[in-house]
Predict the 3D structure of the following.
Amino acid sequence: MKLNHRLKVWLLKYVPDPSMDTCATIAVLVEEDGTGTFANAQFIKDWDKIVTLDPMADIEFLEEVKDEVEDAWGSPEERHSLIRILTDSLSNTLQIAESPVATDDIQIEVDRLVKFNLGQVA
């Protein structure tokens, strides 16, 4: 099987207490590496998991982050600027990590990543 597509995948995680080993992925962000022609941003659909993890979670702030990412993700320029901001400026409560992924089918890979990391269908 030839892996024709290289993807950049970012996981955006909510970490209520950085001194503890507890976190929840709130978003899977994907971009085709090199071309940037494919981009997909999937967020957790229900914040209940976050509230269960941290009853004091600022869901309004998380919704604002979600809206900002979704608004910017369609434009390669805005997407790259947003990734820099997220990487450089996030508090300890939100953390982002990038991983390269190779695949022969982008949509199948996105579906797999969303199901595994968010526990839902893309």
